[in-house]
C-alpha cells in the first residue's frame, strides 16, 4: 500500500504510545482514523489533538477483551468513516510482574492474557470477516514484541508468554491469508529497536477493578521508562530508548513495501537472535538474554 490518502485505519490502543503515533503518522498522510481505547483521559486528548491537525477521526471506547466491543468499533469505522482498509491490533499491557512466577497473582495472568492475546484473537474475529468480504486490498497489522517472538527476557514471563502467542497467531494469519490468496497483507509490528518510551510500564492506569492484583502478589516496582533507566543505571547500563513516532514511521515504510516484518534491529539485537538460534541448534543450556 503506497498511498494512505483516504484510507480508513482502525487502531486499538490508539490513545497512547505507539498507537497514538500511528494515528498521527497515518492521519498526516491523509488516512481517516478510528481509535479504540479504554483510557478516557487519553482518548479525550488524542481526539482533541487529531482535530487540531484536521485529521478526520473517530475515537471510540473499545475494550479489546470483548468481541462485541470490537465489532462495534468496526461498525463505527464503516458507518462514520466509510470503510476499513488498515487494522492495527495494537492494544497491549504490561502486568507489572516481579519476583517468582509461581507467586504471581492469578489476576496478573488473566489480565495480561486477556488484553494481549484475546485482544488480538478478538480483533481477528471482528475485522477479518469484514476485510475478506470487502475483497479490497487491506492490511492487518499486529503489534507483537521481540520479547516472546524471538527472545525470552527473564523478567516478565506473563508478558513474554502473551507475545509468544501473539507472534504465533500473527504468522499463522499471514500463512492463511497467503494460502487463501486473499488481498489482506498481514504484518508483525515490533516496537523498537530500543525500549519505546510509552505508557506500557504504567499499564495499571487502565487495569480493570475486577482484575486487580490479589493481596501480597509481587510487583515489579516499575511504573515508567525512567524507572527502568534508573534500574539499568544501577547495574552500570545506559539504557537507550526509542520514541513511538520512530516506530510509526518505520511501520509505514514497511507497509509501503507490503512487508511482514515491521522490525528494526541493532547489531546487538541481531547478534542475540543469532545466538538464540545457535543455542537451539547446539542444544546448549539457555542463558538469560538482556534488554538491548
Ligand atoms: N513500549 C515498548 O517498548 C514496546 C515494546 C514491544 C511491544 N510493545 C507493544 O506495543 C503496543 C502498544 O503499547 P505502548 O507501548 O504504546 O503502550 P501504551 O500504554 O502507551 O499504549 C497502549 C494502549 O492500549 C490501551 N489499552 C490497554 N488495555 C486496553 C483494552 N483492554 N482495550 C483497548 N485498549 C487498551 C491503553 O489504554 C493504551 O492507550 C502493545 O501491544 C505493547 O505490548 C511495546
UniProtKB/TrEMBL annotation:
SUPFAM superfamilies attached to this UniProt entry: NAD(P)-binding Rossmann-fold domains
Transmembrane residue ranges: none
Keywords annotated in UniProt: Oxidoreductase
Xref: Pfam families: adh_short
GO MF annotation list: oxidoreductase activity
Database matches in InterPro entries: NAD(P)-bd_dom_sf, SDR_fam
Database matches in Gene3D superfamilies: NAD(P)-binding Rossmann-like Domain
Record bears the keyword NADP: no
Keyword Lipid biosynthesis appears in the UniProt entry: no
Family: Belongs to the short-chain dehydrogenases/reductases (SDR) family.
PANTHER family: 5-KETO-D-GLUCONATE 5-REDUCTASE (PTHR43669), ALCOHOL DEHYDROGENASE, PUTATIVE (AFU_ORTHOLOGUE AFUA_3G03445)-RELATED (PTHR43669:SF3)
Protein name: SDR family NAD(P)-dependent oxidoreductase
Organism: Halioglobus maricola
UniProt lineage: Bacteria, Pseudomonadati, Pseudomonadota, Gammaproteobacteria, Cellvibrionales
Amino acid at each position: 500500500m503506497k498511498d494512505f490518502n483516504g484510507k480508513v485505519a482502525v487502531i486499538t490502543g490508539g490513545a497512547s504510545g505507539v498507537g497514538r503515533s500511528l494515528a498521527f503518522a497515518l492521519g498526516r498522510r491523509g488516512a481517516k482514523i478510528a481509535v479504540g481505547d479504554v483510557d478516557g483521559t487519553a482518548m479525550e486528548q488524542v481526539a482533541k489533538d487529531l482535530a487540531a491537525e484536521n485529521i478526520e477521526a473517530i475515537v471510540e471506547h473499545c475494550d479489546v477483551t470483548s468481541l462485541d466491543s470490537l465489532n462495534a468499533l468496526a461498525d463505527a469505522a464503516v458507518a462514520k468513516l466509510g470503510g476499513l482498509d488498515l487494522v492495527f491490533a495494537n492494544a497491549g499491557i504490561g502486568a507489572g510482574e516481579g519476583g517468582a512466577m509461581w507467586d504471581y497473582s492469578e489476576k496478573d495472568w488473566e489480565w495480561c492474557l486477556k488484553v494481549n492475546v484475546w485482544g488480538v484473537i478478538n480483533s481477528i474475529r471482528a475485522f477479518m470477516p469484514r476485510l475478506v468480504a470487502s475483497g479490497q486490498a487491506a492490511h492487518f497489522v499486529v503489534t507483537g514484541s521481540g520479547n516472546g517472538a524471538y527472545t525470552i527476557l527473564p523478567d516478565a514471563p506473563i508478558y513474554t508468554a502473551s507475545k509468544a502467542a501473539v507472534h504465533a497467531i500473527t504468522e499463522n494469519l499471514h500463512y492463511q491469508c497467503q494460502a487463501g490468496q486473499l488481498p489482506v497483507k498481514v504484518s508483525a509490528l515490533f516496537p523498537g529497536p530500543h525500549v519505546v518510551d510509552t505508557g506500557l510500564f504504567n499499564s495499571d492506569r487502565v487495569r480493570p477493578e475486577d482484575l486487580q492484583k490479589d493481596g501480597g502478589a509481587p510487583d515489579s516496582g516499575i511504573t515508567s521508562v525512567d524507572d527502568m533507566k534508573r534500574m539499568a543505571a544501577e547495574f552500570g547500563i545506559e539504557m537507550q530508548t526509542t520514541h513511538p513516532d520512530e516506530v510509526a514511521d518505520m511501520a509505514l515504510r514497511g507497509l509501503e513495501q507490503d512487508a511482514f516484518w515491521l522490525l528494526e534491529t541493532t547489531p546487538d539485537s541481531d547478534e542475540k537472535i543469532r545466538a538464540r538460534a545457535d543455542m537451539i541448534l547446539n542444544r546448549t543450556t539457555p542463558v538469560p538474554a538482556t534488554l538491548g
